[in-house]
Amino acid sequence: MSAVDPGAANTEGTEAANGNRLRCNNCGSEAIVTKAGGSALTCCGAPLEVTFGR
Protein backbone atom coordinates (compact mmCIF):
# COMPACT_ATOMS: atom_id res chain seq x y z
CA MET A 1 0.00 0.00 0.00
CA SER A 2 1.14 3.51 -0.64
CA ALA A 3 -0.14 6.97 0.06
CA VAL A 4 -0.31 9.50 -2.71
CA ASP A 5 2.21 12.35 -2.48
CA PRO A 6 0.62 14.90 -0.10
CA GLY A 7 1.81 17.74 -2.32
CA ALA A 8 0.08 16.31 -5.38
CA ALA A 9 -3.56 16.73 -6.35
CA ASN A 10 -5.69 14.23 -4.46
CA THR A 11 -7.70 12.87 -7.38
CA GLU A 12 -6.97 9.12 -7.41
CA GLY A 13 -7.53 6.63 -4.62
CA THR A 14 -9.71 6.36 -1.55
CA GLU A 15 -10.06 9.10 1.04
CA ALA A 16 -10.89 7.63 4.44
CA ALA A 17 -11.61 8.91 7.94
CA ASN A 18 -10.24 7.69 11.27
CA GLY A 19 -11.50 4.20 12.08
CA ASN A 20 -12.26 3.22 8.48
CA ARG A 21 -11.16 -0.25 7.39
CA LEU A 22 -9.86 -0.43 3.83
CA ARG A 23 -9.35 -3.46 1.59
CA CYS A 24 -7.55 -4.04 -1.70
CA ASN A 25 -9.79 -5.97 -4.08
CA ASN A 26 -6.73 -7.22 -6.02
CA CYS A 27 -4.52 -8.79 -3.33
CA GLY A 28 -6.74 -8.74 -0.22
CA SER A 29 -4.51 -6.49 1.91
CA GLU A 30 -6.37 -4.63 4.65
CA ALA A 31 -5.61 -1.46 6.58
CA ILE A 32 -7.27 0.51 9.37
CA VAL A 33 -6.95 4.30 9.32
CA THR A 34 -5.61 5.50 12.66
CA LYS A 35 -4.78 9.06 11.61
CA ALA A 36 -6.46 10.50 8.54
CA GLY A 37 -4.16 12.86 6.71
CA GLY A 38 -5.99 13.81 3.55
CA SER A 39 -3.97 11.53 1.27
CA ALA A 40 -5.69 9.11 -1.08
CA LEU A 41 -4.78 5.45 -0.51
CA THR A 42 -4.08 2.90 -3.23
CA CYS A 43 -2.73 -0.65 -3.47
CA CYS A 44 -1.79 -2.66 -6.57
CA GLY A 45 -2.36 0.53 -8.57
CA ALA A 46 -6.06 0.72 -7.63
CA PRO A 47 -8.04 2.65 -5.00
CA LEU A 48 -8.76 0.83 -1.73
CA GLU A 49 -12.38 0.03 -0.89
CA VAL A 50 -13.84 1.17 2.44
CA THR A 51 -15.30 -1.98 4.03
CA PHE A 52 -16.19 -0.63 7.49
CA GLY A 53 -17.02 2.78 8.91
CA ARG A 54 -18.53 4.36 5.82
UniProtKB/TrEMBL annotation:
Pfam families the UniProt entry points to: Desulfoferrod_N (PF06397)
Annotated region described as Disordered, given as residue ranges: 1-20
Highest taxon in the source lineage: Bacteria
Occurrences of domain Desulfoferrodoxin N-terminal (ranges): 20-49
Key words of the record: Electron transport, Iron, Metal-binding, Transport
Keyword Kinase: no
Electron transport in keyword set: yes
Protein name: Desulfoferrodoxin N-terminal domain-containing protein
Source organism per UniProt: Rhodococcus artemisiae
